[in-house]
Design a protein that fits this description.
The protein is mainly α and 402 residues long. The chain has 17 helices and no strands. The N terminus and C terminus are likely disordered.
Length: 402
């Protein structure tokens, strides 16, 4: 097979070596560039969550002598970052990023689909992961936690699934969407019991580093920091790196500066919950995978805290949705649109003028994911997920790029 035919047939998407090479190689390149250029600010924020917890200093205040911006992760993050904070910064940054990359890799490999389609997801997501890695952020871990939560609950392992869902929730509130998998559990009482157990565990875990009084106060401080961040994201017009969401598009494209998030989130939540009227399909793996896709996109496109690297949470679901689709020009078109405008919107594919004057000011990175989310919910409402062929690795036919 020639290289041209290999590419056009889509065979390259199933190549395991290519998947591993792109997944780890691009992120390795990204973190190496950040280290060489000493762009370590986000990691320093994380490191000082651990240090300030030990010192019993408010972990949500600004400390401009150490880093720019401020921490917005829960107190339990002090435990998560602790093993890395003990190393020299540049070494720690390398292992921190690659640990996140490896964790999400493991989560995708746990998906209940055949290996070749896992390879396709890894290849198609590798650039978005590279973007997240260059920001040194934790979003890949959050995505991995939600996916693992789904995988373990799908296997009727509530304790393991809820461990990851609650870990994500106690670090970054996005993880709460994992409770959407409650209806997939065969033992609802067991699900509730393990929720209580892990809530207590993660609530008290940071008390290994600081007294209970300080940690309890930190939870109050965390709430205040999130409220302040929401206001800042919406009203600070010069901050184009935040509010890359559906609400951000409406506020920026149509000048709806008065728009409150609830005006969009409440109807979106109603649409999301409506998917569960297909209750007789709760045990159907095809339905479950569609809900997973919907769950991963929802907290990103409907959050005013969403920024460029946050989309490593949403974009894997776009890729999962794509590999589940029967080959069609429409599915190809939607996915290519998403790949270009979401995954490559901040890359050199677009000129600096387009990035600075159109894509960023109007939060257009969110648009393709919003379209895919609408398509997913429509397909769930109309039961199109039933077209997925379980006998062929959860896809009707081979991927063909046209």
């Amino acid at each position: 097979m020639t290289i041209k035919n290999w590419f056009l047939s889509g065979t390259f998407l199933f190549n395991r070596k290519l998947a591993i090479g792109l997944w780890f190689g691009l992120s390795l390149l990204a973190v190496t560039m950040e280290i060489l250029n000493s762009r370590l600010n986000n990691y320093l924020i994380y490191k000082y969550v651990y240090i300030h917890t030990l010192q019993q200093l408010n972990i949500y205040l600004d400390y401009p002598m150490f880093y720019d911006d401020s921490n917005h992760y829960g107190p339990v993050f002090s435990i998560v970052i602790a093993p890395f904070a003990l190393w020299p910064d540049k070494i720690a940054v390398f292992f921190w990023v690659m640990a996140n990359v490896t964790f999400l890799y493991y989560a995708i490999r746990k998906l209940p689909i055949v290996t070749k389609y896992q390879n396709a997801i890894l290849i198609l997501c590798s650039h978005e992961l590279m973007t997240a890695s260059s920001w040194l952020q934790i979003n890949a871990l959050i995505a991995g936690c939600i996916i693992l939560g789904f995988c373990f609950i799908n296997e009727n392992k509530n304790s393991q699934g809820l461990f990851f869902i609650l870990l994500a929730t106690f670090i970054k509130i996005y993880g709460v969407v994992g409770f959407a998998f409650f209806f997939f559990s065969k033992d609802k009482i067991n699900f509730i019991v393990w929720t209580a157990i892990w809530c207590i565990f993660f609530f008290v875990a940071p008390m290994l580093l600081a007294p209970p009084s300080f940690i309890i106060q930190s939870y109050y401080d965390w709430h205040e920091s999130l409220v302040a961040k929401i206001d800042k994201n919406i009203f600070l017009k010069s901050n184009l790196l935040q509010d890359i969401s559906v609400m951000g598009m409406l506020r920026r494209i149509f000048k709806f500066t008065w728009l409150k998030d609830a005006y969009v989130i409440v109807p979106a939540l109603a649409v999301f919950l409506g998917q569960y009227f297909n209750y007789r399909y709760f045990s159907d793996l095809r339905f479950r995978l569609y809900i997973l896709c919907s769950v991963l996109i929802f907290p990103v496109i409907f959050s005013n805290s969403a920024e460029n690297p946050t989309y490593i949470i949403a974009f894997p679901s776009v890729c999962i949705w794509y590999v589940l689709q029967p080959p069609s020009t429409r599915a190809n078109g939607i996915f290519v649109f998403a790949l270009i405008l979401t995954s490559f919107s901040y890359s050199d594919i677009f000129t600096p003028y387009l990035r600075a004057s159109i894509i960023m000011p109007y939060s257009l990175k969110a648009l393709p994911c919003f379209i895919v989310w609408l398509v997913i919910t429509w397909q769930v409402y109309t039961k199109q997920f039933l077209k997925v062929d379980l006998s062929n690795g959860l896809r009707a036919k081979e991927i063909t790029l046209i």
